[in-house]
Amino acid sequence: MSDIIKILPNYTYDDYVHWEGRWEVIEGIPYAMSPSPSPNHQRIGANLIRELSNHLRKCSGCSVYQPLDYVIEDTTILQPDILVVCNPIIKKYLDFPPALVVEILLPSTALKDRHTKYSIYESQGIKYYAIISPDTEEAEVYELVQEQKRSYELRRKGHDFFFDFSFDDCKAGIDFKEIW
Fold first, then answer.
1. Is the dihedral of CA 175, 179, 129, 101 positive or negative?
2. pLDDT of residue 3
3. How many CA atoms are closer than 13 Å to the CA of 79, on its beta-carbon side?
4. With contact defined as beta carbons under 8 Å apart, do 47 and 70 qualify?
5. More confident position, 60 or 139
6. C-alpha count within 13 angstroms, C-beta hemisphere, residue 99
7. Structural domain containing residue 97
8. DSSP strand pairing (76-78 vs 70-73)
9. Would you say residue 2 has pLDDT above 80?
10. Tell me: the pLDDT tens digits for 15-59?
11. Structural domain includes residue 69
12. Which of 4, 84, 95, 170 has the greatest number of CB atoms lying within 10 Å of its CB?
């Protein structure tokens, strides 16, 4: 039996900035962010952004963002659907963990969002991770419970619930029935 050498691509941020379209890179491997999200996906995202923005508008330290480049390391660049960031972003991209990441599932990204990205966000110490399923109209909110071990705990799951996010000196109480 012969030895087979597998050669995988290993792309960096310098490569990524030259690509057309939307991409993510995880450990040097590129992932296309297409097709475009469905109208339902976009509507749910817009509703959640509105809810978060309304609660954080009086907060001087935290802002809500739609997809932007979150550079974890040179070979891992993610574009979460929604982020809450509570520190100034100085570079063209986010280079530190946000306070909240929201991923709205698509059939083509659900496995990556639930496993690969979940583990990355957890290891980065992101306080909250919310996963939204447009198909089932269900939300899951995870909170980092042990900063040393960096492990998430499911805090709430369902269609119709209220959750208080606490970011530094800011709070955002979200009624998830309002996003559907």
1. negative
2. 64
3. 18
4. no
5. 139
6. 21
7. 36-178
8. antiparallel
9. no
10. 999 999 999 999 999 999 877 888 999 999 999 999 999 999 988
11. yes
12. 84
- Asked whether the beta carbons of 134 and 39 are under 8 A apart, the reply is no
- What's the number of domains the chain is made of? 1
The whole-number pLDDT of residue 58 equals 86
By residue count, the chain amounts to: 180
For the segment 134-158, what is each residue's pLDDT rounded down to a tens digit? 999 999 999 999 766 789 999 999 9
Mapped onto helix, strand or coil, the DSSP state of residue 106 is coil
Containing 117, the helix (H) or strand (E) segment is helix 117-123
Residue 103 belongs to domain with CATH number: 3.90.1570.10
Q: Of 100, 77, 74, whose CA–CA distance to 23 is shortest?
A: 77
**Residue at 28 is within a domain:** no
Is residue 25 assigned to a domain? no
- Residue 8 DSSP class: -
